[in-house]
Amino acid sequence: MTERQPLLLQSENTASEGRYPPRPDVRNSPENTLVNVQSEESIAGSNESLDKSTYNPSLHRTLEHPTSNFDTLVHLLKGNIGTGILAMPDAFKNAGLYVGLFGTLIMGAICTHCMHMLVKCSHELCRRLQQPSLSFSEVAFCSFETGPSGLKRYSHIARRMITTFLFITQIGFCCVYFVFVAFNIKEVVDHYFPHNFINVKVYLTLILLPMIPLNLVRNLKYLTPVSLAAAALTVLGLAFSFFYILQDLPDTDTVKPVASWAQLPLYFGTAIYAFEGIGVILPLENNMKRPEDFGGSTGVLNTGMTIVACLYTTVGFFGYLKYGENVKGSITLNLPPDQFISQMVRIAMAVAIFLSYTLQFYVPVNIVEPFVRNQCEDQRTKDLASTALRIVLVVFTCK
């Protein structure tokens, strides 16, 4: 027999008016005795706890130009597929064919899991603090602030560390993108005009001119066509690369199944660099029209990262199988230089990386921009300061 629990109910009048203390209801008490009296403070605390548990951060976000699921997927793909994918055959050389095969898939699964953890932590902290969204560094700060009391003293240190490391990482990606584009264009020009003496710094300067206005765009919604064009060029470049790679493939016993232990750190370094999109995860999710579609087994994140992991594994596996120990740091360098298609692959990949720069640049500029804008008073000065900041950072990554 189930024991009946006493109910504590407020009368309708006092509950609605809130002017008198709540009166206990002892109708379900077997002895009609007072069993519990809740104060107004405890009820307020219960309501506050209920509000926190039912608070939905996505319903409180005010976005001027939210991105659709497709927009977010395109940005996610281009945020992860950069210069690292071209180095995956070299990474497989340092791991061995089968260690690289399973290692890359496992690493992709781990990276995806960590991205899910980051988003879930952000959602939980948003509910606790009733904030619509949090940045990467704010997630670290609030985790320490709302965690064990012994860790609260380190909250500011955690935020500064995350901000610093994230800024350096993303700025580093931008620098690599500049160098990659400049050197690939120079190699193509040198192939067709072998007697020219144009220094690579000239190409860097020429790239800088269109790069500045492209990075003055401040909204991810408007960057979707840029990321889409970059994704299309990447697919085109990889398709033509496989045209050469899949011709006359040797047997798998012609390459090492497992490399030496001394080479494994080089594999992990290249593979971790290739999965470079962790910094763009929260900005993408925070700008979605329907952020509830970001997670889940068939959500944007799993869909995008499955494509990324499969592409990395495929390029690395077949690239290493084709060229073996002669594979170079970028698979495009192994393509026959005297053929027009291989030169077009280099141009396509260079333009794709050039267009991908805007998404990688979005993260570091949004770290520094709020601080710069807070130093200004009127809106016009804030906009000018933001524009100047973007120009300075783009020039810095070029130099």
UniProtKB/TrEMBL annotation:
Name the segments for region: Disordered. 1-63
Q: Name one GO molecular function term.
A: L-amino acid transmembrane transporter activity
Where it sits in the cell: the answer is:
Membrane
Q: Which UniProt keywords apply?
A: Membrane, Transmembrane, Transmembrane helix
Keyword Membrane on this protein? yes
**Spans traversing the lipid bilayer:** 95-119, 162-185, 197-216, 228-246, 266-284, 296-320, 340-363
What membrane topology term does the record carry? Multi-pass membrane protein
The Amino acid transporter transmembrane domain is annotated at 65-397
Q: What segments bear the compositional bias annotation Polar residues? A: 29-63
Q: What is this protein called?
A: Proton-coupled amino acid transporter 4
